[in-house]
Amino acid sequence: MPGCGKCGATLDGLYNQPARRDTCPACDAELHACVHCRHYDENVARECKEPFAEVPEDKESANFCDLFQIGEGMRRDSGPAKDALLSAAEALFKK
User: Which residues 6+ apart lie within 8 Å of 14 measured at CB?
Assistant: First the structure.
């Protein structure tokens, strides 16, 4: 089910790709933006897993990317903090 990559809301009724100016009904974010794409990943180079994409600087505004595919709407800032993950890894491998 497609979802908003900013607020995590489920986008009921959106079974196809959003138009360039479609917005999320919950948070009013522009949906044809990198943060909502299934190729978006903060942990890879240029924050895009698609090697042939021309990645824009602004990942939250609507763009004209032809490789855009709406994602599942994972809320990216709701997971464990990076510091907490590093502390857990250090504790795991501590001698």
Answer: 2, 22, 31, 70
Q: Is the pLDDT of residue 72 over 90?
A: no
Considering the entire predicted model, what is its pTM?
0.71
Q: How far is CA 30 from the centre of its chain?
A: 12
In sequence order, the 6+-apart residues with CB closer than 8 A to the CB of 88 are: none
Domain spans of the chain, in order of start = 1-95
- Position 60 scores a pLDDT of 92
Give the separation between CA 29 and CA 35, rounded to whole angstroms.
Answer: 10
b/e 26-62 (16+ beta carbons within 10 angstroms → b): eeebbbbbbbbbbbbeeeeeeebebeebebbeebeeb
